[in-house]
Amino acid sequence: MRKKAIIFDLDNTIFPVPQIGYTLFAPLFALIEQAGYHGNEMDQIKDEVMRMPFQRVAQEHNFSETLTNKSIELLQELAYNGDMESYEDYAHIQRLPHDKYIVTTGFRKMQQSKVDRLGLANDFKEIHIIDPTTTKQTKKDVFAEIMHRHGYKPEDVMIVGDDLHSEIKAAQELGVYALWYDKEERYKPVPGVKKIKDYGELLKVLGSL
Ligand SMILES: [Mg+2]
Question: Which key words tag this protein in UniProt (predicted)?
Fold first, then answer.
């Protein structure tokens, strides 16, 4: 079945967050260290901040309400103004003839600055930023809304991302083909989820469906 639409995540799917993360999040990391998080836990927090929505990191590390609120206040104002590059295999995505979408979760100003710095507007039909500080919507809601609005059936769509617990899970719940992008081969394979490390493989997968 030929896919009509492909929905991509942004962070660690279009570009590697660690490329900008240490600079971008420096004030946040300082705030968290001041609150008493150090050593191994701090390393883990830094890694997670670059891979999942902040609200999830705060919850998993039992941040106090004060620290969570202060961090969110800071993150709502952060934007990235430096140079950014997409993954080297991004050119494969640019050449795909499909309707392409980005759905990303994060602070609006920050996510918008990444979209702008990467110059993504012309490569995608729609770009959606889900900011958990202003909406209760989930990725699953936005995927479903895109599919409904454009009349895509589940079999018309593919969803691509690096987070098993976010876009991959949502795709599976909607009965949509999920493709797991693991550029750095950080993760062990999981049964039932196709994992790739290069978008050259995406072309092969599309050809095989
Ligand atoms: Mg991601």
Answer: Hydrolase, Magnesium
Q: How far is the CA of 83 from the centre of ligand 1 (A)?
A: 19
- Is residue 105 within 8 A of residue 53, CB to CB? The reply is yes
Number of H helices, E strands in the chain: 10, 6
Domain assignment of residue 152, given as a range: 5-15+83-208
> Ligand 1 centroid to 163 CA: how many Å?
6
Q: What is the sign, positive or negative, of the torsion defined by CA atoms of 127, 53, 175, 136?
A: negative
Return the residue matching tokens 């140079």.
83
pLDDT at res. 1: 62
- Verify that 93 and 128 share a domain, yes or no: yes
Quick: pLDDT tens for 49-93: 999 999 999 999 999 999 999 999 999 999 999 999 999 999 999
Please give the distance, rounded to the nearest whole angstrom, from the Cα atom of residue 168 to the centre of ligand 1: 10
Given a cut of 70, is residue 157 above it in pLDDT?
yes
Ligand 1 centroid–CA 124 distance in Å is 17
Residue 137 CA to ligand 1 centre (angstroms)? 17
The tokens for 35 are 């609150």
